Amino acid sequence: MLLTTMKRMQKTIFLGLILVFIVQGANAQEVLTLNKAFDIAETGSPDLKRSLLNLERYQKSLEAQRAALKSRFSLDVSPVMFSRNRRFDNRVSEWYTNENFETNALFRVEQPILITDGTLSLTNEFGWSSSYSDANDLESEVFYNNLYLNLNQPLFTYNRQKLELKELELNFENANISYAMQRLNLERNVTEFFYNVYMAQMNLNVAKDELENTQKSYDIIKNKVEAGLAAQEELYQAELNLATSKSTVQNSEVSFENAKDQLKLYLGMDLYEDFSILADVAVNPVPVDLEKAIETGLESRMELRQREIDIQSSQFELIRTKSMNEFRGDVNLRLGISGDNPSLDKVFDAPTNSPSVAVNFNIPLFDWGEKKARIAAQEAAVESQKLNLSDERNQIIISIRQTYRNLQNQLTQIEIARQNQTNAQLTYEINLERYENGDLTGMDLSLFQNQLSESKISYNQALINYKIELLNLKIQSLYDFENNEPILPSELYIEENQNN
């Protein structure tokens, strides 16, 4: 009795463990919804990561350029400088040997002047020098200090510092726009990949239903043939239909797994992680105002700003082109004071003022028309960029119109597909009854089965096409008609994009 009870307990525990493992295995498979796919892609998508890295590159370049406009401090230290040279003195026609030992430090402060493209610098050189010459057998040691304030100012030319800074600001803005556009494209691509998996899963389910129906048909005709109520040829056709249905299921399974791998790759998921799709493809028609879609698209589409940036960049290049072989001047002003003395505390007892002024001009004379031709070529490039802006505006209007028409057409296609599926279901059921009564061949029933399967797939595809076109209109117009609210491009930029 005790042995029997222990065996029952062991059996109960064993069955319980099996149940636990089954539940854990079922829970291990992640259920993936469209919103969850978006969340995964926001952090894992390789395309978005590349766009973010490109944005970071331009942001850091802009930060570096702004930092370069602040004061620069540097210190050059030469602890030991020793030299011994044999020289000839023309005054007395004698050779002599000179030894020199020196140590010094040079402190420099440079401040770029953004408003004038000039540079203001302050330098101070302090050192000690020991020199010996055997010409007169004298040795001298001295401390020295040279303090200079220097201004270098270009004249009659464009401000290179301002132009370079503005270019980097535009590059950063363009990269931010590209990132925002990538986020919009990410939403569209994730939706398409997600629904590709859903359709592959739907095809698999339809194929399995078709196999189940084909199996029932095969069993019916097999029983009839064995009872002598149907010809042997009907059984052969039923066997062929059953084999074809099994092959269709296998092909659908392969397509389903391939679609899941493509989605994993785009989302940046672990390729060995399995999941199942949970999608809501029900369609509620959304009212769309075409004029409002076009208006918000022209006001908000970031591609237009990109074309404007292209125009500005080409104009900057025109400025550079015009500076070729230009008349240019440079002014260099220096105020300085220097002193030296064997005693450190008396270095500035008798200081020497060292002012200097230098003005230079570069005057081009003749370049065989090179500058004129290059300017004309760049002006043509500027006009081309302006045409691109106009074409972009027209393309936005056309794209929104086409998407709107497709959206309205999809509603019609959904209704047709729904009616087609209903008719195909009723037709199949009627002909299945005829088949069971022996009034229809297996080949004819297979055609009705295929028609039913295709109608189910077409209906689901029509629903998905409507959702994708609605999303496409949202991206084209930057207006969410489902929630009746605009999409602000600034909301798509990264946070802290103006923290510098």
Q: How do the strands and helices of this protein lay out in sequence?
A:
Elements (H helix, E strand, L loop, with lengths): L1 H27 L1 E3 L1 H11 L1 H23 L3 E18 L4 E20 L4 E16 L4 E18 L4 H67 L5 H36 L7 E3 L12 H11 L1 H21 L5 E14 L10 E2 L2 E7 L7 H67 L5 H36 L1 E2 L4 E2 L14
Parallel strand pairs: 1-6
Antiparallel strand pairs: 2-3, 3-4, 4-5, 5-7, 7-8, 7-9, 10-11
Helix pairs in contact: 2-4, 3-4, 4-5, 4-7, 4-9, 6-8, 7-8, 8-9
Written description of the protein model:
By secondary structure, the protein is of the alpha+beta class. It is built from nine helices and eleven strands. The protein has helices at 2-28, 34-44, 46-68, 160-226, 232-267, 290-300, 302-322, 370-436, 442-477, and strands at 30-32, 72-89, 94-113, 118-133, 138-155, 275-277, 328-341, 352-353, 356-362, 479-480, 485-486. Strands 2, 3, 4, 5, 7, 8 and 9 form a seven-stranded antiparallel beta sheet that branches. Helix 7 (302-322) packs antiparallel against helix 8 (370-436). The longest helix is centred in the middle third of the chain and has 67 residues, at 160-226. Residues 1-27 and 496-500 have low confidence and may be disordered. One of its GO terms (molecular function) is porin activity. Pfam families: OEP (PF02321).
